[in-house]
Amino acid sequence: MLAVLLLCVGFGWLANISISVYAHRALAHKAVALHPAPAHVFRFLIFLTTGTRVRAWVAVHRKHHAYVDREGDPHSPVVHGIAPIFFAGYRYYFRESTNEATLRRFGHDCPDDWLERNLYEGRSNLGLALLAAIYLGLLGPWLGLLGFALQLMWMPLCAGVINGLGHHAGYRNHETRDGSRNVVPLALVIAGEAHNNHHRFPRSAKFSTRWWEFDVGWAVIRALAACGLARELYVYDRKWRPGAPLPAVRPAEAAPFEAAGS
């Protein structure tokens, strides 16, 4: 049973990091530029651990920011209620992810190469089939099926936490026009996605603004940057302190990489 839990947590953590760093910060908000090597690793991990079509995820998320907590927001607990979003938020995401108008308007500047068209988006369910084979191969039929079933619950649970509790419970560092909240220590599990901080500085590659908030995704970005594999494009002013006037997000140096998914 310990092996089941370790695999679920490990694959779940990889899923969260890949979505947060690649789909969220690099693609949806263009906050960080990734070298093609880690970009392709993240693309494969999203395919393997979630079966998510990246362009659809980016489009739904951008629409969320465009209509945050008002009519048109695909998954706001303010609009739809906390219980439906927390317990069935993935259904709201899936419904919007198949909306062609949303994909056309908000799904631009995403990878459109052969791999994306023919595998990652064209046959996205093959990733989960491969993940099921890994579970069955490592754990055997019964524990493997149990582990895979638990794994399938991971992303809907995280979606409920981020989109539900992230706009309903927790604390606020910043006054924003929405109901966004930071939920700690759950942010540690969901790759440092401090929601209120992010809605105040949506183009910042760094989601933590207080010294005791730990952004796992930012740590991964800095580690990649130290290896020459990432470059932050935008980051909130680190000199800001709570209570001081809010600064604008500053642009960093020009990125050496053309696109996150190239």
Features:
262 residues; two-stranded antiparallel sheet; globular; Fatty acid desaturase; membrane; oxidoreductase activity, acting on paired donors, with oxidation of a pair of donors resulting in the reduction of molecular oxygen to two molecules of water
What can you see in these coordinates?
- It is a single chain.
- The chain has 262 residues and is mainly alpha-helical.
- It has one domain.
- 56% of the residues lie in helices and 4% in strands.
- It is built from twelve helices and four strands, in the order αβαααααααααααβββ.
- It has helices at residues 2-28, 36-49, 54-66, 77-80, 82-97, 100-106, 114-120, 125-139, 141-164, 186-189, 195-200, 216-226; strands at 32-34, 230-232, 234-235, 250-251.
- The strands form two sheets. A two-stranded antiparallel ribbon has the order 1-2. Strands 3-4 form a two-stranded antiparallel sheet.
- Helix 8 (125-139) crosses helix 9.
- Its EC number is 1.14.19.-.
- Belongs to the fatty acid desaturase type 2 family.
- Its main location: membrane.
- It is a multi-pass membrane protein.
- The chain crosses the membrane at residues 41-60, 126-154.
